[in-house]
Each structure stands twice: as C-alpha cells, then as structure tokens.
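Dear U.,

For the methods section draft, I wanted the exact inputs and outputs in one place so we can describe them consistently. I've listed the two proteins in the order they'll appear in the manuscript figures. Please don't edit the token lines directly; just add comments below if something needs changing.

First protein:
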Amino acid sequence: MSTATAAAPPPGQPSASRPRLLVRLFRAATSSIVATSISQVTLIGLLWWGATPSLASAVAFVAGAIPNYFLARSWAWGRKGKPQVARELMPYFAVIGAAGLASVGLTTVAGWITEPLRISGFVRIIVLDAAFLASYSLVFILKFALLDRLVFAGGARTRAATSRS
C-alpha cells in the first residue's frame, strides 16, 4: 500500500484537513459577515463625509475584501502558507472583482436614483447602504461556490504534494 493511498480518506469521507461543505459554508458566511461589517463602517463613514456612492462603495468593498481573503482562506478552507499566484490569487481576484463590481454598480445606480429625488442626509445613506448590502446578499452563494470549486479546490492535495517534493 502506498503512502498516498494510506493517507487518503475513504471515498465519500471528507479529509480531516478540509472541512465539510456545510462547515465551510458556515465559516465562509461568518468571515463574510466580519468583512461586511468592516465594509459597512467604511461605507457609512465615507458617505457621511460626502464621498460619492461609487467611491465610497469601492473603498468599502476593498476594506472588507482584504480581511475576508485571509479569514476565508485560513479558517473556511484551511489553507496555510504562501498562496500560489496563478492557482489561487488570480482566480480569487477575478471572483471577488466580479462581486465588487456588483456592489459598486448597485450602489452607484442607487445613488443615481436618489439624486433627482432629493433624498439627502441620513435617509440617503440608508438607501445606499441597503443597495450595498443587497448586492452582498445576491452574490454570496455564487461567490462561495466559485471560491469552493475553483479557487480553493484541491487545497489539501496541493499542500500534500508540495510538501513531499
């Protein structure tokens, strides 16, 4: 029996180093909530100080995406060590970039809609914030599926293969 066969879990059994789907989903959702909270504080603060919806949502998205990467990578998907640029970072940026465009786009559209309505102050911030949150909710499951199946797929096998080399 080879060491690769002995180390592999039986078919249908999750590996100990890679949490099962529901655990990953819960952990990804939790890290997303943390990131969304950071984004929300950033968005509301920037809007309060007079930033445009486009600028505020773009900066807010980045402010949350950075800690979300590290939380999700290590906690939800169990990745450790230096990430591979072509296999992990570039696909992650593509998935997150699409989610960011959705957030910025929806918030910008909400800004355009509220402009002629002369909604201002706190009410406008609430409307823009609701649009920003709605975009996060709309893309979370798709983003999770892409991260799970494309970006962080096969992580345990990759680490095991590179550690034997």
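Second protein (the one for the lower panel):
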Amino acid sequence: MLDNHQKNIATFIHLSTFSRFIIPLGNFIGPLILWIANKDKSEFVDAHGKQAINFQISILLYAIILGMITIPFFIFNLFNGLDFINIDSFDSIHLSLTKPSPLLYITGGLGIIAFIGFILELVFIVKASLAAKDGDYYKYPLTINFLK
C-alpha cells in the first residue's frame, strides 16, 4: 500500500527536473539525489526515479543528435558566400530576404522540431508528476531504458 510520503517523493523526483532552469544540470542532479536517497525504501519511488532519469538521459541524447544534424547546416549556410582564397571575400557576403538558402529552411525546420520537443518534454514531466501524485506508474514515451 502506498502512503502519501512515497507518492510525494515520486512526484518531487519528476518535478525536480525543472531545477535545470535554476541550477546547471539540475535535471540530472535533483532526481538522482532524491532517487538514490529513497530507492531502497519503496519500489514505487524506485520505478519513478528510474523513469525520470532515463527520460532525462534520453532527452539529452536526442538533443545531441539533433544538434549534430543542425550545426553543419547552419555553418554551411553561414559560409556559403565566402571564398577563402580571395581576401576581399567579405565584400561579397550579402543577405537575401527574397531568396533565402534552402539550408536555412532545413535549419529552421530542425529548430522548430527542437522547440516542439521541448514543449512535449514539459508536458510529459507534468503528466508523470500527476501520475505519481495519484499513485500510478508512468512510462515516458520514447525513453531508452539505461537504468533497469
């Protein structure tokens, strides 16, 4: 039988991921500290702690992959008008608002995907917190299970 203390700890594990807005790497440190301190006391807390940490590691991995795809497109778009042999090449750089580069569209599209992913991450964290408050188990979507 779950008591309110276990539900509260599991809820705070999920909500502690928001500490990243105040503390660098708080989305890892907060849940990790709460999970390590309470994982032996309750299977419910242990399951929620693993889910929260796995989700944060998965989000970090997805962000790194998206960044590795986006950054080359941005750099190619930035240096598209440069001729590295000609010293006066900076005079030939111009921004065209009427005909932007297709690479700019790709980079913008990936940026929109990143923004949508951020909003979905916030929604999933709130849903997991509410499930923990109600005493239900929650499995984050698209999560890689690093901790089993």
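Candidate sentences for the figure legend, describing the second protein: The chain is about 65% helix and 0% strand. The radius of gyration is 22 Å.

Thanks,
Y.
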